[in-house]
Amino acid sequence: MLQDYHAVLVFLITGVAMVCTPLILGLLFRPKNDYAEKTMPYECGEDPIGDAQIRFDMRFYTTALIFIIFEVEIAFMFPWAHVFNSAPDKLFALGAGLIFIFIVFLGLIVDWAKGDLDWVKTFDTNKRRVQD
Amino acid sequence: MNEFFAEYPLVFTMATTLAKIVLFTHIGLILAAYMPWVERKVSAWMQDRVGPNRVGYAGLGQPIADALKFIFKEDPVPGHVDKVLFTLAPALTVIPAILVLAVVPFAPAVSLFGQTAQMAIADLSVGILFVFAFSSLAVYGITLAGWASNSKYPLIGGVRSAAQMVSYELCLGLSVVGVFMAAQTLRLTDIVELQVDGYWNMFTQPIGFLVFVIAAFAETNRLPFDLPEAETELVAGYHTEYGSMKFAMFFAGEYMAMFVFSCLVAVLFMGGWDVPFMSNESFAALGNWGAALGFVAFLTKVLLFLFFYVWVRFTIPRFKFDQLMHLGWKVLIPLSLLNILWAGLWNMPS
Q1: ipTM for the predicted complex
Q2: How large is the angle between the packed helices B127-135 and B188-195, nearest 10 degrees?
Q3: Residue A127 pLDDT
Q4: Which of A130, B137, B260, B323 is the most buried (most CB within 10 A)?
Protein backbone atom coordinates (compact mmCIF):
# COMPACT_ATOMS: atom_id res chain seq x y z
CA MET A 1 0.00 0.00 0.00
CA LEU A 2 2.60 2.49 1.20
CA GLN A 3 4.91 1.15 -1.50
CA ASP A 4 2.85 2.97 -4.13
CA TYR A 5 3.53 6.26 -2.39
CA HIS A 6 7.26 5.52 -2.39
CA ALA A 7 6.97 5.39 -6.18
CA VAL A 8 5.24 8.78 -6.08
CA LEU A 9 8.07 10.17 -3.95
CA VAL A 10 10.70 8.88 -6.40
CA PHE A 11 8.67 10.37 -9.24
CA LEU A 12 8.45 13.69 -7.39
CA ILE A 13 12.24 13.78 -7.07
CA THR A 14 12.52 12.97 -10.78
CA GLY A 15 10.12 15.79 -11.59
CA VAL A 16 12.02 18.33 -9.47
CA ALA A 17 15.30 17.22 -11.05
CA MET A 18 13.78 17.56 -14.51
CA VAL A 19 12.86 21.16 -13.75
CA CYS A 20 16.09 22.14 -11.99
CA THR A 21 18.53 20.65 -14.50
CA PRO A 22 17.71 22.92 -17.47
CA LEU A 23 17.46 25.97 -15.18
CA ILE A 24 20.92 25.35 -13.69
CA LEU A 25 22.37 24.30 -17.06
CA GLY A 26 21.27 27.62 -18.53
CA LEU A 27 22.76 29.49 -15.57
CA LEU A 28 26.21 28.17 -16.51
CA PHE A 29 26.09 29.08 -20.19
CA ARG A 30 24.00 32.18 -20.64
CA PRO A 31 25.35 35.73 -20.82
CA LYS A 32 24.39 38.31 -18.21
CA ASN A 33 24.16 41.88 -19.37
CA ASP A 34 21.63 43.86 -17.30
CA TYR A 35 21.15 47.60 -17.38
CA ALA A 36 18.49 49.87 -15.93
CA GLU A 37 16.20 50.01 -18.96
CA LYS A 38 16.30 46.27 -19.46
CA THR A 39 15.18 45.50 -15.91
CA MET A 40 12.13 47.78 -16.09
CA PRO A 41 8.66 46.16 -15.95
CA TYR A 42 7.32 45.71 -19.47
CA GLU A 43 4.50 48.10 -20.30
CA CYS A 44 4.80 48.42 -24.05
CA GLY A 45 7.49 51.12 -23.84
CA GLU A 46 5.72 53.42 -21.35
CA ASP A 47 7.45 54.19 -18.05
CA PRO A 48 5.46 52.26 -15.46
CA ILE A 49 3.57 54.38 -12.92
CA GLY A 50 3.58 53.05 -9.38
CA ASP A 51 3.68 49.55 -7.99
CA ALA A 52 1.68 46.74 -9.58
CA GLN A 53 1.02 44.84 -6.35
CA ILE A 54 -2.13 46.76 -5.65
CA ARG A 55 -5.57 45.88 -4.34
CA PHE A 56 -7.47 44.41 -7.23
CA ASP A 57 -11.05 43.76 -8.17
CA MET A 58 -13.41 42.59 -5.41
CA ARG A 59 -15.17 40.19 -7.80
CA PHE A 60 -12.20 37.79 -7.76
CA TYR A 61 -12.61 37.48 -3.98
CA THR A 62 -16.30 36.61 -4.27
CA THR A 63 -15.53 33.98 -6.87
CA ALA A 64 -12.87 32.43 -4.63
CA LEU A 65 -15.28 32.35 -1.67
CA ILE A 66 -18.03 30.59 -3.64
CA PHE A 67 -15.41 28.20 -5.00
CA ILE A 68 -14.25 27.10 -1.55
CA ILE A 69 -17.80 26.33 -0.46
CA PHE A 70 -18.57 24.27 -3.56
CA GLU A 71 -15.24 22.46 -3.51
CA VAL A 72 -16.00 21.22 -0.02
CA GLU A 73 -19.42 20.01 -1.19
CA ILE A 74 -17.72 18.04 -3.99
CA ALA A 75 -15.38 16.47 -1.47
CA PHE A 76 -18.49 15.25 0.40
CA MET A 77 -19.94 13.86 -2.83
CA PHE A 78 -16.99 11.57 -3.65
CA PRO A 79 -17.53 9.03 -0.82
CA TRP A 80 -21.23 8.89 -1.63
CA ALA A 81 -20.49 8.19 -5.31
CA HIS A 82 -17.98 5.55 -4.26
CA VAL A 83 -20.50 3.41 -2.40
CA PHE A 84 -23.56 4.30 -4.48
CA ASN A 85 -23.63 1.18 -6.67
CA SER A 86 -23.27 -1.20 -3.74
CA ALA A 87 -26.05 0.41 -1.69
CA PRO A 88 -28.79 -2.07 -0.67
CA ASP A 89 -31.51 0.35 -1.81
CA LYS A 90 -30.21 2.39 -4.73
CA LEU A 91 -33.36 4.47 -5.05
CA PHE A 92 -32.97 5.61 -1.44
CA ALA A 93 -29.25 6.26 -1.98
CA LEU A 94 -29.98 8.35 -5.07
CA GLY A 95 -32.75 10.24 -3.27
CA ALA A 96 -30.51 11.00 -0.30
CA GLY A 97 -27.76 12.18 -2.60
CA LEU A 98 -30.14 14.33 -4.60
CA ILE A 99 -31.43 16.04 -1.45
CA PHE A 100 -27.84 16.96 -0.60
CA ILE A 101 -27.17 18.14 -4.17
CA PHE A 102 -30.42 20.13 -4.09
CA ILE A 103 -29.28 21.97 -0.96
CA VAL A 104 -25.93 22.73 -2.66
CA PHE A 105 -27.74 23.85 -5.77
CA LEU A 106 -29.99 26.07 -3.64
CA GLY A 107 -26.85 27.89 -2.54
CA LEU A 108 -25.90 28.37 -6.18
CA ILE A 109 -29.37 29.71 -6.95
CA VAL A 110 -29.14 32.20 -4.08
CA ASP A 111 -25.76 33.43 -5.36
CA TRP A 112 -27.21 33.57 -8.84
CA ALA A 113 -30.25 35.57 -7.75
CA LYS A 114 -28.11 37.97 -5.71
CA GLY A 115 -26.00 38.58 -8.80
CA ASP A 116 -22.75 37.26 -7.30
CA LEU A 117 -22.20 35.12 -10.39
CA ASP A 118 -22.60 38.03 -12.83
CA TRP A 119 -19.24 39.34 -13.88
CA VAL A 120 -20.62 42.52 -15.40
CA LYS A 121 -22.67 43.98 -12.56
CA THR A 122 -25.98 45.49 -13.61
CA PHE A 123 -27.79 47.97 -11.45
CA ASP A 124 -31.47 48.74 -11.37
CA THR A 125 -31.41 50.88 -14.45
CA ASN A 126 -35.18 51.07 -14.86
CA LYS A 127 -35.35 54.40 -13.08
CA ARG A 128 -32.82 55.97 -15.38
CA ARG A 129 -33.57 54.21 -18.64
CA VAL A 130 -35.46 56.09 -21.31
CA GLN A 131 -38.37 54.05 -22.64
CA ASP A 132 -37.11 52.47 -25.86
CA MET B 1 15.64 -14.91 -12.62
CA ASN B 2 12.16 -16.20 -11.83
CA GLU B 3 13.30 -17.75 -8.52
CA PHE B 4 15.27 -14.67 -7.61
CA PHE B 5 12.30 -12.34 -8.11
CA ALA B 6 9.95 -14.79 -6.41
CA GLU B 7 12.21 -14.60 -3.38
CA TYR B 8 12.72 -10.84 -3.50
CA PRO B 9 9.54 -9.30 -4.99
CA LEU B 10 10.63 -5.90 -3.65
CA VAL B 11 13.62 -5.84 -6.03
CA PHE B 12 11.24 -6.55 -8.92
CA THR B 13 8.91 -3.74 -7.83
CA MET B 14 11.76 -1.27 -7.53
CA ALA B 15 13.25 -2.21 -10.90
CA THR B 16 9.92 -2.00 -12.74
CA THR B 17 9.01 1.26 -11.01
CA LEU B 18 12.25 2.87 -12.13
CA ALA B 19 11.80 1.51 -15.66
CA LYS B 20 8.24 2.86 -15.77
CA ILE B 21 9.34 6.28 -14.51
CA VAL B 22 12.01 6.49 -17.22
CA LEU B 23 9.66 5.27 -19.95
CA PHE B 24 6.59 7.35 -19.11
CA THR B 25 8.43 10.60 -18.38
CA HIS B 26 10.16 10.23 -21.74
CA ILE B 27 6.85 9.73 -23.50
CA GLY B 28 5.50 12.81 -21.74
CA LEU B 29 8.56 14.95 -22.38
CA ILE B 30 8.91 13.98 -26.04
CA LEU B 31 5.23 14.63 -26.66
CA ALA B 32 5.41 17.95 -24.78
CA ALA B 33 8.46 18.94 -26.83
CA TYR B 34 6.92 18.00 -30.15
CA MET B 35 3.44 19.39 -29.48
CA PRO B 36 4.47 22.96 -30.45
CA TRP B 37 5.82 21.53 -33.72
CA VAL B 38 2.60 19.57 -34.27
CA GLU B 39 0.58 22.66 -33.44
CA ARG B 40 2.50 24.83 -35.92
CA LYS B 41 2.29 22.19 -38.64
CA VAL B 42 -1.44 21.59 -38.12
CA SER B 43 -2.22 25.30 -38.02
CA ALA B 44 -0.18 25.76 -41.20
CA TRP B 45 -2.12 22.94 -42.82
CA MET B 46 -5.45 24.47 -41.73
CA GLN B 47 -4.48 27.94 -42.95
CA ASP B 48 -2.85 26.72 -46.18
CA ARG B 49 0.70 27.65 -45.19
CA VAL B 50 3.93 25.64 -45.10
CA GLY B 51 4.78 25.79 -41.39
CA PRO B 52 8.22 25.12 -39.88
CA ASN B 53 10.49 23.48 -42.48
CA ARG B 54 14.01 24.83 -41.91
CA VAL B 55 15.57 22.80 -39.09
CA GLY B 56 15.97 19.21 -40.20
CA TYR B 57 13.52 17.23 -42.29
CA ALA B 58 10.08 18.97 -42.25
CA GLY B 59 11.26 21.13 -39.37
CA LEU B 60 11.52 18.12 -37.04
CA GLY B 61 14.67 19.53 -35.45
CA GLN B 62 12.81 22.66 -34.35
CA PRO B 63 12.18 21.59 -30.69
CA ILE B 64 15.88 20.77 -30.22
CA ALA B 65 16.93 24.10 -31.73
CA ASP B 66 14.44 25.91 -29.48
CA ALA B 67 15.71 24.11 -26.37
CA LEU B 68 19.31 25.05 -27.15
CA LYS B 69 18.28 28.64 -27.73
CA PHE B 70 16.46 28.70 -24.37
CA ILE B 71 19.63 27.56 -22.63
CA PHE B 72 21.95 30.10 -24.30
CA LYS B 73 19.65 33.15 -24.21
CA GLU B 74 20.08 35.83 -21.59
CA ASP B 75 17.58 35.70 -18.73
CA PRO B 76 16.76 39.27 -17.75
CA VAL B 77 15.05 39.44 -14.35
CA PRO B 78 13.24 42.76 -13.86
CA GLY B 79 14.42 44.75 -10.87
CA HIS B 80 11.03 45.06 -9.17
CA VAL B 81 10.14 41.39 -8.90
CA ASP B 82 9.90 39.19 -5.83
CA LYS B 83 12.96 37.09 -6.74
CA VAL B 84 12.10 33.91 -4.80
CA LEU B 85 8.52 33.59 -6.03
CA PHE B 86 9.56 34.68 -9.51
CA THR B 87 11.92 31.70 -9.77
CA LEU B 88 9.60 29.31 -7.94
CA ALA B 89 6.55 29.99 -10.13
CA PRO B 90 7.72 28.25 -13.35
CA ALA B 91 8.74 25.17 -11.36
CA LEU B 92 5.34 25.17 -9.64
CA THR B 93 3.53 24.96 -12.98
CA VAL B 94 5.62 22.12 -14.41
CA ILE B 95 6.07 19.80 -11.42
CA PRO B 96 2.34 19.23 -10.67
CA ALA B 97 1.67 18.58 -14.37
CA ILE B 98 4.40 15.94 -14.48
CA LEU B 99 3.36 14.40 -11.15
CA VAL B 100 -0.18 13.64 -12.32
CA LEU B 101 1.37 11.19 -14.82
CA ALA B 102 2.20 8.95 -11.84
CA VAL B 103 -1.30 7.49 -11.63
CA VAL B 104 -2.15 7.23 -15.34
CA PRO B 105 -2.38 3.58 -16.46
CA PHE B 106 -0.78 3.35 -19.92
CA ALA B 107 -1.44 -0.32 -20.67
CA PRO B 108 -2.84 -3.55 -19.19
CA ALA B 109 -0.67 -5.27 -16.57
CA VAL B 110 2.52 -6.85 -17.94
CA SER B 111 3.88 -10.17 -16.64
CA LEU B 112 7.65 -10.51 -16.47
CA PHE B 113 9.69 -13.27 -14.81
CA GLY B 114 6.57 -14.72 -13.21
CA GLN B 115 5.58 -11.38 -11.62
CA THR B 116 2.96 -8.91 -12.72
CA ALA B 117 3.59 -5.19 -13.04
CA GLN B 118 0.80 -2.63 -13.31
CA MET B 119 1.51 -0.19 -16.11
CA ALA B 120 0.96 2.88 -13.96
CA ILE B 121 3.91 4.27 -12.02
CA ALA B 122 1.89 4.22 -8.80
CA ASP B 123 -1.44 2.41 -8.95
CA LEU B 124 -2.97 4.37 -6.05
CA SER B 125 -6.34 3.42 -4.61
CA VAL B 126 -7.18 7.14 -4.47
CA GLY B 127 -5.91 7.78 -8.01
CA ILE B 128 -8.37 10.44 -9.05
CA LEU B 129 -8.06 12.36 -5.76
CA PHE B 130 -4.31 12.42 -6.38
CA VAL B 131 -4.99 13.84 -9.85
CA PHE B 132 -7.20 16.61 -8.48
CA ALA B 133 -4.83 17.37 -5.61
CA PHE B 134 -1.89 17.94 -7.94
CA SER B 135 -3.58 19.40 -11.01
CA SER B 136 -5.11 22.13 -8.82
CA LEU B 137 -1.62 23.08 -7.61
CA ALA B 138 -0.92 24.42 -11.10
CA VAL B 139 -3.02 27.49 -10.28
CA TYR B 140 -0.38 28.53 -7.71
CA GLY B 141 2.33 28.64 -10.35
CA ILE B 142 0.40 30.91 -12.65
CA THR B 143 -1.02 33.18 -9.95
CA LEU B 144 2.35 33.54 -8.22
CA ALA B 145 4.00 34.32 -11.56
CA GLY B 146 1.48 37.10 -12.09
CA TRP B 147 1.89 38.47 -8.57
CA ALA B 148 5.68 38.14 -8.28
CA SER B 149 6.30 39.88 -11.61
CA ASN B 150 5.14 43.17 -10.07
CA SER B 151 3.96 44.45 -13.41
CA LYS B 152 0.43 45.28 -14.51
CA TYR B 153 -0.19 42.84 -17.35
CA PRO B 154 1.05 39.78 -15.46
CA LEU B 155 -1.04 40.77 -12.43
CA ILE B 156 -4.22 40.92 -14.50
CA GLY B 157 -3.32 37.63 -16.17
CA GLY B 158 -2.57 36.00 -12.83
CA VAL B 159 -5.77 36.93 -11.01
CA ARG B 160 -7.84 36.12 -14.07
CA SER B 161 -6.21 32.74 -14.23
CA ALA B 162 -6.94 32.09 -10.56
CA ALA B 163 -10.63 32.91 -11.04
CA GLN B 164 -10.86 30.87 -14.22
CA MET B 165 -9.09 27.80 -12.89
CA VAL B 166 -11.03 27.61 -9.63
CA SER B 167 -14.33 28.06 -11.49
CA TYR B 168 -13.64 25.23 -13.91
CA GLU B 169 -12.11 23.06 -11.21
CA LEU B 170 -15.64 22.71 -9.82
CA CYS B 171 -17.05 21.46 -13.14
CA LEU B 172 -14.09 19.10 -13.49
CA GLY B 173 -14.72 17.61 -10.05
CA LEU B 174 -18.48 17.35 -10.47
CA SER B 175 -18.34 15.77 -13.93
CA VAL B 176 -16.34 12.75 -12.75
CA VAL B 177 -18.69 11.98 -9.83
CA GLY B 178 -20.88 10.12 -12.34
CA VAL B 179 -17.92 7.95 -13.37
CA PHE B 180 -17.34 6.87 -9.76
CA MET B 181 -21.02 6.12 -9.30
CA ALA B 182 -20.72 3.60 -12.14
CA ALA B 183 -17.26 2.30 -11.25
CA GLN B 184 -17.41 2.29 -7.39
CA THR B 185 -13.69 2.94 -7.24
CA LEU B 186 -11.21 5.79 -7.50
CA ARG B 187 -8.42 3.56 -8.82
CA LEU B 188 -7.80 4.48 -12.46
CA THR B 189 -6.78 0.94 -13.50
CA ASP B 190 -10.11 -0.42 -12.23
CA ILE B 191 -12.05 2.36 -13.98
CA VAL B 192 -10.45 1.34 -17.30
CA GLU B 193 -11.02 -2.37 -16.72
CA LEU B 194 -14.72 -1.73 -16.13
CA GLN B 195 -14.98 0.07 -19.45
CA VAL B 196 -13.24 -2.70 -21.40
CA ASP B 197 -15.84 -4.88 -23.08
CA GLY B 198 -18.55 -2.71 -21.57
CA TYR B 199 -19.58 0.76 -22.47
CA TRP B 200 -17.13 3.61 -22.61
CA ASN B 201 -18.18 6.30 -20.17
CA MET B 202 -18.41 8.84 -22.99
CA PHE B 203 -21.41 6.89 -24.33
CA THR B 204 -23.11 6.19 -21.01
CA GLN B 205 -22.50 9.70 -19.65
CA PRO B 206 -22.39 12.09 -22.62
CA ILE B 207 -23.10 15.17 -20.47
CA GLY B 208 -20.29 14.40 -18.05
CA PHE B 209 -17.92 13.81 -20.96
CA LEU B 210 -18.82 17.15 -22.54
CA VAL B 211 -18.38 19.06 -19.28
CA PHE B 212 -15.08 17.32 -18.52
CA VAL B 213 -13.68 18.13 -21.98
CA ILE B 214 -14.67 21.81 -21.73
CA ALA B 215 -13.25 22.06 -18.21
CA ALA B 216 -10.03 20.36 -19.38
CA PHE B 217 -9.60 23.08 -21.99
CA ALA B 218 -10.13 25.77 -19.35
CA GLU B 219 -7.79 24.11 -16.82
CA THR B 220 -4.95 23.98 -19.33
CA ASN B 221 -5.52 27.63 -20.36
CA ARG B 222 -6.04 26.69 -23.97
CA LEU B 223 -8.09 28.55 -26.51
CA PRO B 224 -10.99 29.32 -26.37
CA PHE B 225 -10.16 29.78 -22.65
CA ASP B 226 -6.67 31.33 -22.79
CA LEU B 227 -7.75 34.49 -20.94
CA PRO B 228 -4.68 34.42 -18.63
CA GLU B 229 -2.47 34.90 -21.70
CA ALA B 230 -4.74 36.72 -24.14
CA GLU B 231 -1.93 38.15 -26.24
CA THR B 232 -4.15 40.71 -27.96
CA GLU B 233 -4.98 42.51 -24.71
CA LEU B 234 -2.44 41.43 -22.05
CA VAL B 235 0.79 41.21 -24.13
CA ALA B 236 1.55 37.69 -22.85
CA GLY B 237 -0.46 37.63 -19.61
CA TYR B 238 1.17 36.05 -16.59
CA HIS B 239 4.50 35.28 -18.31
CA THR B 240 5.10 38.74 -19.81
CA GLU B 241 8.19 39.34 -17.65
CA TYR B 242 9.68 35.88 -18.17
CA GLY B 243 12.38 35.03 -20.65
CA SER B 244 14.71 32.23 -21.58
CA MET B 245 14.46 28.92 -19.65
CA LYS B 246 11.86 30.19 -17.17
CA PHE B 247 9.53 31.03 -20.03
CA ALA B 248 10.24 27.62 -21.54
CA MET B 249 9.10 26.09 -18.24
CA PHE B 250 5.66 27.73 -18.54
CA PHE B 251 5.52 26.57 -22.13
CA ALA B 252 6.49 23.01 -21.24
CA GLY B 253 4.08 23.05 -18.30
CA GLU B 254 1.18 24.00 -20.55
CA TYR B 255 1.91 21.23 -23.06
CA MET B 256 2.56 18.73 -20.27
CA ALA B 257 -0.82 19.63 -18.77
CA MET B 258 -2.44 19.13 -22.18
CA PHE B 259 -0.86 15.68 -22.41
CA VAL B 260 -1.96 14.78 -18.89
CA PHE B 261 -5.55 15.90 -19.47
CA SER B 262 -5.65 13.96 -22.75
CA CYS B 263 -4.56 10.90 -20.78
CA LEU B 264 -7.30 11.54 -18.21
CA VAL B 265 -10.00 11.94 -20.86
CA ALA B 266 -8.84 8.67 -22.42
CA VAL B 267 -8.79 6.86 -19.07
CA LEU B 268 -12.00 8.19 -17.56
CA PHE B 269 -14.24 8.46 -20.60
CA MET B 270 -12.73 6.76 -23.66
CA GLY B 271 -11.96 3.34 -22.23
CA GLY B 272 -8.22 3.79 -21.63
CA TRP B 273 -6.35 0.95 -23.38
CA ASP B 274 -9.58 -0.66 -24.63
CA VAL B 275 -9.82 -1.67 -28.26
CA PRO B 276 -13.42 -2.12 -29.48
CA PHE B 277 -14.58 -5.74 -29.48
CA MET B 278 -11.83 -6.86 -27.09
CA SER B 279 -12.65 -8.15 -23.61
CA ASN B 280 -10.41 -8.36 -20.55
CA GLU B 281 -10.08 -12.09 -21.27
CA SER B 282 -8.88 -11.58 -24.83
CA PHE B 283 -6.31 -9.05 -23.57
CA ALA B 284 -5.15 -11.60 -20.99
CA ALA B 285 -5.05 -14.37 -23.64
CA LEU B 286 -2.64 -12.32 -25.74
CA GLY B 287 -0.30 -11.97 -22.76
CA ASN B 288 2.28 -9.25 -23.10
CA TRP B 289 1.27 -8.68 -26.72
CA GLY B 290 -2.14 -7.68 -25.36
CA ALA B 291 -0.39 -5.13 -23.15
CA ALA B 292 1.50 -3.81 -26.19
CA LEU B 293 -1.74 -3.60 -28.18
CA GLY B 294 -3.42 -1.75 -25.29
CA PHE B 295 -0.48 0.65 -25.06
CA VAL B 296 -0.78 1.49 -28.78
CA ALA B 297 -4.56 1.93 -28.43
CA PHE B 298 -4.10 4.23 -25.44
CA LEU B 299 -1.48 6.37 -27.18
CA THR B 300 -3.70 6.61 -30.27
CA LYS B 301 -6.55 8.00 -28.16
CA VAL B 302 -4.24 10.46 -26.44
CA LEU B 303 -2.80 11.67 -29.75
CA LEU B 304 -6.27 12.04 -31.24
CA PHE B 305 -7.32 14.17 -28.30
CA LEU B 306 -4.15 16.27 -28.55
CA PHE B 307 -5.01 16.85 -32.22
CA PHE B 308 -8.50 17.87 -31.07
CA TYR B 309 -6.90 20.45 -28.76
CA VAL B 310 -5.07 22.01 -31.73
CA TRP B 311 -8.11 21.74 -33.96
CA VAL B 312 -10.26 23.66 -31.47
CA ARG B 313 -7.58 26.32 -31.03
CA PHE B 314 -7.74 27.24 -34.69
CA THR B 315 -11.52 27.00 -34.93
CA ILE B 316 -13.07 28.79 -31.95
CA PRO B 317 -12.17 32.39 -31.02
CA ARG B 318 -11.44 33.45 -27.44
CA PHE B 319 -14.23 34.11 -24.93
CA LYS B 320 -14.65 37.39 -23.09
CA PHE B 321 -14.12 37.11 -19.32
CA ASP B 322 -17.79 37.60 -18.41
CA GLN B 323 -18.78 34.94 -20.95
CA LEU B 324 -16.23 32.61 -19.42
CA MET B 325 -17.61 33.04 -15.91
CA HIS B 326 -21.16 32.75 -17.21
CA LEU B 327 -20.37 29.47 -18.97
CA GLY B 328 -18.56 28.05 -15.95
CA TRP B 329 -21.00 28.91 -13.19
CA LYS B 330 -24.39 29.11 -14.87
CA VAL B 331 -24.14 26.46 -17.59
CA LEU B 332 -21.52 23.84 -16.75
CA ILE B 333 -22.21 23.45 -13.01
CA PRO B 334 -25.97 22.85 -13.48
CA LEU B 335 -25.11 20.50 -16.38
CA SER B 336 -22.68 18.48 -14.28
CA LEU B 337 -25.28 18.21 -11.48
CA LEU B 338 -27.68 16.95 -14.14
CA ASN B 339 -25.05 14.38 -15.10
CA ILE B 340 -25.06 13.02 -11.53
CA LEU B 341 -28.82 12.54 -11.75
CA TRP B 342 -28.38 10.87 -15.16
CA ALA B 343 -25.67 8.55 -13.84
CA GLY B 344 -27.87 7.64 -10.85
CA LEU B 345 -30.84 6.75 -13.06
CA TRP B 346 -28.62 4.87 -15.55
CA ASN B 347 -27.28 2.63 -12.79
CA MET B 348 -30.73 1.89 -11.35
CA PRO B 349 -31.66 -1.81 -11.45
CA SER B 350 -34.40 -2.07 -14.07
Answers
A1: 0.82
A2: 120
A3: 53
A4: B260
